Every structure is written in C-alpha cells, then in structure tokens.
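Study this chain:
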Amino acid sequence: MSAGSIVALAGLVALVAGLALYERGRAGSREIGLVAVLIAAASAGRVLFVAVPGAQPVTAIAIIAGVALGPRAGIAVGAGSALVSNAFLGQGPWTPWQMLLWGLAGLAGGLLAPALRRSRWALVGLGVALSLVFGTLMDVWQLATFGPALTLTAFAAVHVRALPFDLAHAIATAAILGLAGPSLIGLVDRSAVRVRGRWSTAPVTGEPRP
C-alpha cells in the first residue's frame, strides 16, 4: 500500500469514528439545526473569502462551536463545513483530510473550552496553532498522495511555498477569534439555551449555572 493510500485511509477512519461518536450522542433535532446554521456560516465564509488566498474562517468557527456546544458539535461543524464548502469550491481526495483536520479543530475547542472561555489570548493562540498545523499536515498529505516523495527535503520545499497561505490562514483565524470570538461564543451559548433550555455545555455570561 502506498504512503498516500495509508494517509487517506487513516484520515477516513478517524473521520468516520468522529462522526459515529456524534451520531451516538444525545443530539436532538434542535441541536442539529443549530449545528447546521454554524456549518452554513463557516461554509459561506470560506466561499466568500476564496479571493483571499489562505483565509479560512472554518477553523475559527469550528473552535467556537466546540467551545460553546461541546466536542461532538465542534467535530460536526468542522467536518461538515469542509464537505459543504467543497461542494462549491471543488470536491476531491483532499476533502476527507480537510474534514478530519477541521473536525479535530472543533474537538480541541470543546476539550479546552474552560481555559478558552477564561482567556481571549488562549483562544487566539489555539486558533493560530491549529491553523499552522492544518497547513503543515495538508502539505504532508499532498506529498504522500501526489509525490514526488515524502521526504524531509521535499516537505521543506513544499512547506516554504505554502507558508504565505498558512500565515494568511493563521492571521484570519486570529482576527476572527481575537475581535469577535468571545462575543460569538456568547451568542451561540444564548442560542443553545433558547433551543434546548439546559442543553448548553456551559453557562451564558451573567446567567447562573444550571
């Protein structure tokens, strides 16, 4: 089995496992509707910002979904946004890998939610780190799938060429999370309370913990 096949298979297995975890959870129709709204917002942002090379709002929105709604919803928003936006931008063998990586961004937001709620800088720092990791792992996938070879020299050459796009991705994510991240988390919190009562995973600012 080629290196590209191994990478693709690993990505698909992890993606299917994450989606299965979400399906087995307690997601009701109202929760799914809220997740769908976030997927639509992230997908629309990605399509609209396609003229700005590297700008990817999906990372920020997946993290926000994870922080506000929990890891399962974060995975669903990240993976779903990649799938939906690629319906407009172009599906291909890269789609499952993007779904995996953005799903993991949502998962990270959910797992680290307490710290991210306390610190705007922690939120921005996670967004920047995940944006750079996203670009790095996509470079690894590209070499493993299309070649010429998955070597350190080839990776360095590909990564240096892609660095401006990775930096644009990180800057866009930092801008969204730094300027509007806490406000957007609060907005999603309030929406969760309205649609599911006590379903929100954390208290809305100013409201007592259920």
